[in-house]
């Protein structure tokens, strides 16, 4: 059994995994580990699809989505369309631990965050301001009815601690130039992430509007329950998405999985994620070492 360990989506998942390992290898919980890992990415202005420095919606407002799930208690918390607050994964955890609810959205998610000590913050950077200005210059339609399908690389993290408990986190700023109020898969339990402490954990990244239609993370965990390896379960989930949404191949989706015994796996659609400018990479950390891997890919059957 290879524990504690952690897996995260994309190359920027590597520093997130290193932060998680620091907690896990000191005997900390998987829940604390995934929160800390997500915070690292949320605070990185160079990651333009997550947290501070994330690309704004079509009105120029940065809206953040995040969810966290604790396998030990089988509880979850989420925020959607949260504005002006850094580290949304930590607000999602507060929803889980300090309310009887699972999700808060929009202005009332912000209201809750401020009441819990969150600070009003400008989430823009010079880079995102410039990108939005360029977007508006090339867009001749009203912002609320037009957006470009780009920049949707969520970070998802799954961790297994020394006590054998699992947790997952998923956080994003969503599609660049999305319609105001649009919420993707990231804060949706079963779509962006899912954990069953007796089986395993999974998280997804890519086009959330497609991922939600097949409850991708739940399907992956249930695949492991049926005896699939983590990689087989991820491949099965991606193949199911491709089969059910055959006319949307270029949208792109990927998932990671971590089984109860520490085995891990991943898969992605070949179209959209197997390109020179957009390689599907994920990070895995155990025994103080973090490695990056590419693929595997699932082609349309």
Layout of secondary structure:
Blueprint: E1 5-9, H1 13-24, H2 30-42, E2 64-70, E3 75-82, H3 88-98, E4 103-105, H4 106-115, H5 126-137, E5 155-160, E6 166-172, E7 193-196, E8 200-206, H6 208-211, H7 216-225, H8 230-244, E9 253-259, E10 264-269, H9 270-273, E11 274-275, E12 278-279, E13 281-286, E14 289-294, E15 297-298
Parallel strand pairs: 3-4, 10-15
Antiparallel strand pairs: 1-5, 1-13, 2-3, 2-6, 5-6, 7-8, 8-9, 9-10, 11-12, 13-14
Helix pairs in contact: 1-2, 2-3, 7-8
Architecture overview:
The protein has 301 residues and is α+β, with helices and mostly antiparallel strands. The chain has one domain (5-298): 4-Layer Sandwich (Glutamine Phosphoribosylpyrophosphate, subunit 1, domain 1). It is 30% helix and 26% strand. The chain has helices spanning 13-24, 30-42, 88-98, 106-115, 126-137, 208-211, 216-225, 230-244, 270-273; strands spanning 5-9, 64-70, 75-82, 103-105, 155-160, 166-172, 193-196, 200-206, 253-259, 264-269, 274-275, 278-279, 281-286, 289-294, 297-298. The strands form three sheets. It has an eight-stranded mixed beta sheet. A five-stranded mixed beta sheet has the order 7-8-9-10-15. A two-stranded antiparallel ribbon has the order 11-12. Helix 1 runs antiparallel to helix 2 (30-42), helix 2 packs antiparallel against helix 3 and helix 7 (216-225) crosses helix 8 (230-244). The chain is globular and about 50 Å long. The chain starts with a strand and ends with a strand. Residues 142-150 have low confidence and may be disordered.
């Amino acid at each position: 059994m290879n524990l504690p360990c952690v897996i995260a989506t994309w190359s920027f998942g590597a520093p997130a995994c290193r932060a998680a390992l620091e907690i896990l290898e000191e005997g900390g919980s998987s829940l604390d580990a995934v929160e800390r890992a997500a915070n690292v990415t949320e605070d990185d202005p160079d990651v333009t699809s997550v947290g501070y420095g994330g690309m704004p919606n079509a009105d120029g407002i940065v809206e953040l989505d995040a969810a966290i799930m604790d396998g030990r208690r089988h509880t979850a918390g989420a925020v959607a369309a949260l504005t002006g607050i850094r580290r949304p994964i930590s607000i999602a955890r507060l929803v889980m631990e300090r309310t009887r609810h699972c999700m808060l959205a929009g202005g009332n998610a912000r209201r809750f965050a401020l009441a819990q000590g969150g600070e009003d913050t400008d989430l823009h950077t010079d880079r995102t301001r410039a990108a939005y200005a360029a977007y508006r210059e090339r867009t001749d339609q009203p912002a609320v009815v037009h957006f470009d399908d780009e920049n949707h690389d969520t970070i998802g993290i799954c961790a297994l601690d020394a006590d054998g408990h699992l947790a997952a986190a998923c956080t994003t700023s969503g599609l660049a130039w999305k319609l105001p109020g649009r919420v993707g898969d990231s804060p949706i339990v079963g779509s962006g992430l899912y954990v069953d402490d007796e089986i395993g954990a999974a998280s997804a990244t890519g086009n959330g509007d497609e991922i939600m239609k097949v409850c991708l993370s739940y399907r992956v965990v249930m695949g492991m329950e049926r005896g699939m390896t983590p990689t087989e379960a991820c491949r099965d989930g991606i193949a199911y998405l491709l089969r059910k949404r055959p006319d949307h191949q270029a949208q792109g989706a990927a998932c990671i999985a971590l089984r109860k015994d520490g085995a891990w796996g991943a898969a992605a659609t070949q179209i959209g994620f197997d390109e020179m400018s957009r390689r599907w990479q994920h990070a895995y950390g155990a025994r103080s070492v973090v490695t990056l891997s590419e693929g595997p890919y699932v082609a349309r059957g």
